[in-house]
Amino acid sequence: MQKPEKNFILTIDGPSGAGKSTVSKKIAARLNLSYIDTGAMYRCVAWAAREAGLDVTCESSLQTLLQNLKIRFQASNENNLVFCNEHEVTSAIRSPEIDALASAVSSVACVRKALLPLQRAAAQYNPAIIDGRDAGTVIFPHADLKIYLDADLATRAKRRFAEQKLNTENAEIDLKSVTEAIANRDQADSSRSEAPLRKAEDAIFVDTANLDIEGVSQLIIDLYKARFNG
Ligand code: DC
């Protein structure tokens, strides 16, 4: 079958806390690829819906919101900055509240339909890494290299807990509630009818539980080199 994508596409899918975004940013920098964080797009929809006081399960309200929604990424040395309707929301979209709202909006059909062309367009001109839940199954089913990262729930919860401690001032955060929230999101993300989280048949499974960030990144870079440099 003819490949529809012009550029080299590397997809990295998996559940929360598997290490996708940290590893993707590192590999993107090392291989000079664009980094497309599709989860941040769902987080922006959730953030904008909350700002507008909308019910995130109401398809018609979200439909109206989506018509005027502008999401923009800006590469910076330190971080990938995220802008939603020209507000800089890089940290604001990482709160536990947005975690839950993003999971809810991501199961709404009109939201997925609106974000899909933006996700594909983002990789139109540059070779890219796409991090998500359906990057290798729906967004780029013909990707050149597909990776599926996973780790046991306890490991992923510990990572997310440490990340949230760093990113938020919220003293209420505790490991037990982070573990429960991740388990709930796993369940919601993998059981929804629209583009559920699952490993593409041709994706390479990597268990990250006993690997550090450098180990996972190097493993993927080696796979990339083996496949494309002979
Ligand atoms: O990767 P993340 O935690 O930033 O993703 C936020 C939410 O968006 C998460 O609940 C899953 C959902 N998501 C999705 O449904 N499809 C994607 N391609 C990326 C994220």
Radius of gyration: 17 Å
Shape: globular
Biggest sheet overview: 5 strands, parallel
How do the SSEs run, as a string of H and E? EHEHHEEEHHEHEHHEH
Number of strands: 8
Terminal-residue CA separation: 22 Å
Give a verbal description of the structure.
The protein has 230 residues and is an alpha/beta fold. It has one domain (9-225): Rossmann fold (3-Layer(aba) Sandwich). 49% of the residues lie in helices and 16% in strands. The strands form two sheets. The chain has a five-stranded parallel β-sheet. A three-stranded antiparallel β-sheet has the order 3-4-5, with helices on one face. Helix 1 (20-31) crosses helix 9, helix 2 crosses helix 4 (96-105) and helix 4 (96-105) runs parallel beside helix 8. The longest helix has 17 residues, at 175-191. The radius of gyration is 17 Å and the shape is globular. 2'-deoxycytidine-5'-monophosphate binds at residues 16, 38-40, 42-43, 102-103, 106, 132-135, 185, 189. The site of 2'-deoxycytidine-5'-monophosphate (DC) has 15 residues, from helix 2, helix 4 and helix 8.
Labels describing this entry:
230 residues; five-stranded parallel β-sheet; alpha/beta; Rossmann fold; binds 2'-deoxycytidine-5'-monophosphate
Please outline the helices and strands.
Layout: E1 9-13, H1 20-31, E2 34-37, H2 38-51, H3 59-67, E3 71-75, E4 80-84, E5 87-88, H4 96-105, H5 109-122, E6 128-132, H6 135-139, E7 145-150, H7 153-167, H8 175-191, E8 204-207, H9 213-228
Parallel strand pairs: 1-6, 1-7, 2-6, 7-8
Antiparallel strand pairs: 3-4, 4-5
